[in-house]
Amino acid sequence: MAIRVRNLTKYYGHEKAINDISFDVKTGEILGFLGPNGAGKTTTMKIITCYMPPTAGTVDVDGYSIADHSLEVRRKIGYLPELNPLYMDMNVMEYLDYAARLHGIDKSKIKQQMNHMIEVCGLKEVRHKDIGELSKGYRQRVGLAQAMIHEPDVLILDEPTSGLDPNQIVEIRNLIKQLGRAKTVILSTHILTEVQATCGRVIIINEGAIVADGTPAQLQQEFHGSESITIELKANVANAMTDIFPKIKALLNVESVEYVGGGNGVHRFFVLATKGSDIREELYRQAVAEKWILLEMSRKVTSLEEVFHKLTRSDDSKQ
Description:
Elements: E1 3-12, E2 15-25, E3 30-34, H1 41-48, E4 56-61, E5 64-65, H2 70-76, E6 77-80, H3 92-102, H4 107-120, H5 136-148, E7 154-158, H6 166-179, E8 184-188, H7 192-198, E9 201-206, E10 209-214, H8 216-223, E11 227-234, H9 240-243, H10 245-249, E12 254-263, E13 266-273, H11 280-290, E14 293-300, H12 304-312, H13 315-318
Parallel strand pairs: 3-8, 3-9, 6-7, 7-8
Antiparallel strand pairs: 1-2, 1-4, 4-5, 9-10, 11-13, 11-14, 12-13
């Protein structure tokens, strides 16, 4: 087990930022750590990386306690915080050399590691420029390079694709997936499509407590409501509401049917079915039996974004 968090609690004065959370992250797992602003994500990351102590609870990284062996924990972790730790008056090469020496990399290997990070993070064109002259996207790449330069076993990345253009996001996404084959990665982001494309598991935290934990597919299945299917068919009938509507409504597991509209013999319906059921086959068989020409049948899948909103919106908005 790469990371083990147990009963973690953090107070800022009288304000409880994290409320007794526990979870594990395995080696080779890419975990998406999600939550709205102020939910406790960054506080949790700072505690795991030894930037601040917890009020209560324990964290172990590869068997080392953050309380008793913080130096060993720091050696094993590469951390890209939300606010990138850059020195604007250094050029890229100077900064990476500085980061490598801070991590205690053997002097004979520093240049090799710097060149490797320049390559994988796409910094070749700007490697001799001052960091203060770089765009936000390039600064983010430099931050990623410093987090990875000592080849850590664990990567903790807080908004790693912030400020990157779509092509750069794809490059960093592929890099994170590649790293996740051998390393443990905790990734925090507000871009939920990135989570679906990159992470094998998701934890959602809200108001300091874990409200969901599972694969993206599991969360989408668990928190969706009725099955939603749109069907469009062509049928030579006098009245769709009397000749088609009741036959769809009578199918097993169908909760409701709405006639969306149509014309020229084409009719469109919106069907709600019991949660967990899949009535597409029955709809197809009914269409064949009635000699309806099936033009379209689409099933709406609950997105991770919808799951996120259901679990994190305020009590006022739920009413």
